[in-house]
Amino acid sequence: MKTIKIIIERNEDGFWGYAENEKAIVGGGNTVQECKQDVLDCIETLKELDEENKPGFLDKDYMLVYKFDTASLLNYYKGIFTNSALERITGINQKQIQHYASGHRNPRLEQRLKIESALHNLGKELLAVEL
Predict the structure, then answer these.
(1) Is there a contact between 17 and 28 (Cβ–Cβ < 8 Å)?
(2) Which InterPro entries match (predicted)?
């Protein structure tokens, strides 16, 4: 199965998404959700092209993976994760997290990986929950 990595970045107009490893896949919107939907709409439009112009990945199984810059990710999930909650799961000070979310500071690779790892671990933990 082919993995198509969609990069989502914040800009002055909202959010912009594009495929890192495929041509012609783009999208945008005022919110991350609108941007993701626009990317999906773009892929649906590509499916309507004639066979000569249709991208080859559409003939096979594929999955989309979304890659965010740190500020976009933190802003997208700010209604779900408070800076206090992120401090608890990452060990990164709340003030530093706020600097990352506002874009005033960019985290070093080590800090980005710490945030990513903490979120993945939380996801694994939640997948194991039964009610």
Answers:
(1) yes
(2) TTHA1013/TTHA0281-like
Closest CA to 26 of 38, 14, 10: 38
For the chain (131 residues), the mean pLDDT of every run of 10, in chain order, is: 92 90 92 94 91 83 91 87 94 95 91 95 95 93
User: Which residue shows structure tokens 């779900």?
Assistant: 80
Residue 5 and residue 19 in contact, taking contact as beta carbons nearer than 8 Å: yes
CA distances from 27 to 4, 61, 62, 110, 123 (A): 14, 21, 18, 29, 26
Select from 111, 74, 69 the least CA-distant residue to 92. 111
CA gap 112, 91 in Å, rounded:
12
Q: Do 26 and 39 contact (CB within 8 A), yes or no?
A: yes
pTM attached to this predicted model: 0.77
